Amino acid sequence: MDAPEALAKTIAEDNHIVANADVSFDVYAGEIFVIMGLSGSGKSTIVRCLSRLVEPTAGDIVLDGENLLKKSAEELIEVRRHKMGMVFQSFGLMPHLNVIDNIAFPLKLQGIERPSATHRRNVSLNWSVCRDAKPIFPMNYRAASNSVSALPDRLPLNLKSGCWMSRSRRLIRLIRKKMQDEFLRIQSMLRKSIVFITHDFQEALRLADRMAIMRDGAIVQIGRPVDLILNPVDDYVREFTNDVPWESVLRAADVCEKAPRSIKGMGRVSADTQISSLLGYLAKHQKGGAVEAKDGSVIGVATASGVLSALANGTNTAPAEVKETT
Question: What's the rounded mean pLDDT across residues 143-157?
Fold first, then answer.
């Protein structure tokens, strides 16, 4: 659309809410692209537009070179069945079907015969339930007499135990981390292109190859998590990154500077070396250490001053008043 910002302003002046305004991004093959922002920033509308659960007012949605906005209802059904899936925040399980039949239900809709469906659902079940049954469903697991084989026949109601959904935030965080681990494990095998919605920067940090931060229906900044940490475009983005443990995120390649003509006598580190493990060396070696790419070539030099510059760029702390002395 021409002049999208002006149109968004007009919509707001008419006491309506802009859902998405001039949103544009690519998702690469095999990439986890995380979209985050505060509640009401437009995250959910974007993913609903991607699958045409919400019809975009303007623009294109291109999947494998084809514009989804030009698909007929029948063609769109085929896309949703075979090329694109969506998991809602509050997903619905069939309460009258057991675990294994819930997993097989999408296959049944595709018309897959039962022998094939049985094989494929058992594979899915092994990935999504049985492997981590004990840490994810601790109380139910014990109630099943320590038998993972009992899980496929259980109804969804019996998978929710009030014991593990307790007030223990530590346990809920543990369950969340386990689910993230499982998500990454499956992704390492399948290499799907994924759009992931969250409001938790720590979660985005674990999962994202790249991420977009939204505000008022618009994308404020897109980049790798470390790019957003080191170079936030404004205070809104900076607020998301304030509590990030930078020493476990930054790598040598993120802080390296142009190498001098001679690096003789310098130690060498790989580009993906965590800064936290490099601080001791940099504190004792003022010239820093040469940073190597995978092929052994030097891409720059990491120094203590380079680390401090990177951190200073990403902080919103007011600078201290430093008095000049004579």
Answer: 60
CB atoms within 10 A of CB 225: 21
pTM: 0.74
Distance CA(289)–CA(304), nearest Å, equals 10
pLDDT higher than 60, residue 80 = yes
Nearest to 194 by CA among 68, 66, 33, 26: 33
Helix locations, the chain, DSSP H: 4-13, 43-50, 73-82, 99-109, 114-125, 133-136, 138-143, 169-190, 201-207, 225-230, 235-241, 252-255, 279-284, 304-314
Strands 218-223 and 210-215: antiparallel
Q: Please write the tens of the pLDDT for every residue from 151-208.
A: 677 887 776 544 444 445 666 777 788 888 888 988 988 899 999 998 888 888 889 9
Structural element, H or E, at residue 87 = none
In the DSSP assignment, the letter for residue 287 is T
CA-CA distances (angstroms) from residue 146 to 6, 99, 142, 143, 179? 61, 17, 5, 7, 20
pLDDT tens-digit readout, 217-237: 999 999 998 889 888 999 999
